[in-house]
Write a structure and sequence with these properties.
Length: about 500
C-alpha cells in the first residue's frame, strides 16, 4: 500500500511584521478592487490580495488612512501583483492619477507592458479599451489616459524625474535604490491631491544604501508614523540559509511562482549577505553575518516564551536610543520552576521617552520593585530621573564600574545557561545587532551597536534590570510596595 503524498511546501502568506495605520473605519471599495482585477484575468495570491486591502483602508472622512504604504519582500515573489488591483480600480473607478517610477527603465517597461495589456487590448478587454482617451507609447512620454480623468504615467528615476507631473498616487518601485534627491523631486507631484498616497515597494538595501527606505522601515518598527501601512517578510536575526522551511517562511511566492531550484541556483553564486537580502528579505544582513557577542544558538537556548514568574520582587531598567528615537523598559525577576533569573522587555516605543515615567510608576504601584536602574551616561535616560523621584521612586544610577559589571554578568549568565529570556523579537534583534563597546582602560566593555540603524535599547535595559535584581548596591526604596511580581 503506497503512502500518501506529502503536502507541497508553500510560501507563508502572512507577513512576519506588519504596521497598520491609525484611524481605519472600513475598507470601502477595497474588496471591489480585488474583484475587479480577478474579472480581468488576474487572480492574486492571498498575500497579494491582503496587501492591496491593507493600502485601501479608509478614515472616517473617506480619505486613505495610509498616506504612505510600504511592502518589503524578497525578489521575484510578485510585489506588483498587489499593485495591479490598486492601479486598475484606482484608475477606472476612482479616477485617480498615478505616477509609477522605478530605478531602472527595464523595470518601468515591465509595468508598462502589464498595464498596456489591460487597456490596449480591445479583443480581450473591450470594456477597459472603451474607457481610454489616449495611450502614448513614445519613449519617455508613456501614458494611459481614461475618459474619467484617471491616468497612469511611467518614469525611470532621476534627480528631476518628478517635475511636470501632478498625480494622486506616487508609486516608487525598487525603493531600496531611492535617494533623498529622487524623493525630493518626486514628492511634490502629489502635494496638491486631496487624497494622496505614496506606495513604496522594494527589497532590503545593501549596507550604506537605501537611506529613505531604511527610514520608512524604522518608522514601521518603531511605530512613529500613524499614517504608514507596512508589510514585511524578513527571515529574522539568524537562520539556516539552506533550509526550505526558512525559504518558504519569508517568500510568499514560494510554490506559486518560485521553486526550490531557483534558490539553490542563486545560493551557489551569491554571497551570504546578498542572498540574505535578495532571496530571504533580510534587513541588516551584513550586521547579522558579522561577529556577534553571543552566538545565536546559545542565545536561543536560553529563551522560553512560556516563562511564568515566581511572584517575587522585580527590578526594572529603562534605556533610550542615542537619538531618542526608541525607548525600552525591561524587567527582571525569578522563574517559578527553576528559580532562575529571567528578563522580559516590557515595552518598547518610538519617539520621546517621557511616557516611561508613568509606565514605571504604574509598575511600582502594583508590584514589589526592588530597583529601578538607569545608566546616567545616557542623557535621555538621565532626564527621567528627577520625574521618577518626584513620584517617590528610588532610582539607582550606575557607575562606570557597575556598567561593566552589569554587562559581564549578563554575558556570563547567558553563556553559562544561568538565566532565561522571553524569546521576544525585539530582544532577539537587539542581541543580533549588539556589539562590544570598550569602556575604561582595563578591558571592560558595555553594549554598543553594529550601526546606527539598530536599536539595542531592549538588550541594554534587560542587562541593567538583571543587575538590579541581583545587586546589593541598588538604591534603597523610598516606600514599600506589595503585590505579586507579574509584568502585566
Amino acid at each position: 500500500m503506497s503512502s500518501p503524498l506529502a503536502e507541497p511546501l508553500m510560501g507563508n502568506q502572512i507577513p512576519t511584521f506588519e504596521h497598520v495605520p491609525d484611524g481605519i473605519v472600513g475598507l470601502g471599495d477595497a474588496e471591489d478592487a480585488v474583484f475587479l482585477a480577478e474579472g480581468y484575468q488576474f487572480e492574486p495570491d492571498p498575500w497579494q490580495r491582503d496587501t492591496t486591502l491593507s493600502w485601501m483602508g479608509l478614515k472616517a472622512d473617506g480619505r486613505w488612512a495610509a498616506t504612505r504604504c510600504g511592502l518589503s519582500v524578497a525578489r521575484q515573489d510578485g510585489k506588483t501583483g498587489a499593485l495591479e488591483p490598486r492601479i486598475l480600480y484606482g484608475m477606472t473607478e476612482l479616477a485617480e492619477r498615478f505616477l509609477y517610477t522605478a530605478h531602472e527603465i527595464k523595470t518601468a517597461k515591465k509595468m508598462m507592458s502589464r498595464l498596456f495589456f489591460y487597456f490596449d487590448n480591445p479583443s480581450v478587454f473591450p470594456k477597459l479599451y472603451r474607457q481610454v482617451v489616449e495611450i502614448r507609447k513614445a519613449n519617455g512620454q508613456e501614458i494611459i489616459l481614461l475618459k474619467n480623468g484617471g491616468s497612469i504615467e511611467f518614469a525611470a528615476r532621476t534627480r528631476g524625474s518628478g517635475r511636470g507631473y501632478t498625480v494622486d498616487v506616487l508609486i516608487i518601485d525598487e525603493a531600496q535604490e531611492l535617494t533623498e534627491l529622487h524623493l525630493a523631486a518626486l514628492q511634490p507631484t502629489i502635494s496638491t491631491s486631496l487624497n494622496r498616497q505614496t506606495i513604496f515597494l522594494g527589497t532590503p538595501p545593501a549596507q550604506g544604501m537605501g537611506v529613505v527606505w531604511t527610514k520608512i522601515h524604522q518608522d514601521a518598527h518603531r511605530g512613529t508614523n500613524p499614517r504608514l501601512a507596512w508589510r514585511e517578510w524578513d527571515n529574522g536575526p539568524e537562520v539556516d540559509l539552506d533550509d526550505p522551511q526558512v525559504i518558504a517562511a519569508v517568500n510568499p511566492g514560494f510554490g506559486y511562482r518560485l521553486d526550490l531550484e531557483s534558490f539553490e541556483d542563486d545560493r551557489g553564486v551569491m554571497s551570504d549577505a546578498t542572498y540574505l537580502r535578495e532571496r530571504l528579505g533580510c534587513w541588516g544582513a551584513e550586521q547579522i553575518l558579522s561577529k556577534r557577542v553571543i552566538d545565536d544558538l546559545t542565545w536561543r537556548a536560553s529563551g522560553d516564551p512560556t516563562l511564568i514568574d515566581a511572584g517575587k520582587e522585580v527590578a526594572l531598567s529603562v534605556d533610550v536610543a542615542p537619538d531618542a528615537s526608541s525607548t525600552s523598559i525591561s524587567g527582571a525577576t525569578w522563574t517559578t520552576t527553576e528559580g532562575m533569573p529571567y528578563v522580559d522587555v516590557l515595552e518598547t516605543r518610538g519617539g520621546a521617552p517621557d511616557w516611561a515615567v508613568n509606565y514605571i510608576a504604574g509598575v511600582y504601584e502594583r508590584q514589589d520593585v526592588r530597583a529601578v536602574v538607569i545608566d546616567p551616561a545616557n542623557p535621555h535616560a538621565l532626564a527621567l530621573v528627577d520625574p521618577l523621584k518626584e513620584k517617590g521612586i528610588a532610582v539607582t544610577l550606575l557607575t562606570v564600574r557597575q556598567v561593566i559589571s552589569s554587562t559581564l554578568q549578563f554575558y556570563k549568565a547567558v553563556m553559562g545557561a544561568e538565566m532565561r529570556h522571553m524569546s521576544q523579537i525585539s530582544l532577539d534583534l537587539a542581541m543580533a545587532g549588539a556589539r562590544k563597546r570598550p569602556i575604561g582602560t582595563a578591558g571592560g566593555w558595555g553594549w554598543g551597536r553594529a550601526n546606527d540603524t539598530i536599536d539595542i535599547t531592549p538588550v541594554v535595559s534587560a542587562t541593567n534590570a538583571l543587575w538590579g535584581l541581583r545587586s546589593t548596591e541598588v538604591a534603597k526604596k523610598q516606600k514599600k510596595r506589595t503585590g505579586a511580581a507579574c509584568f502585566v
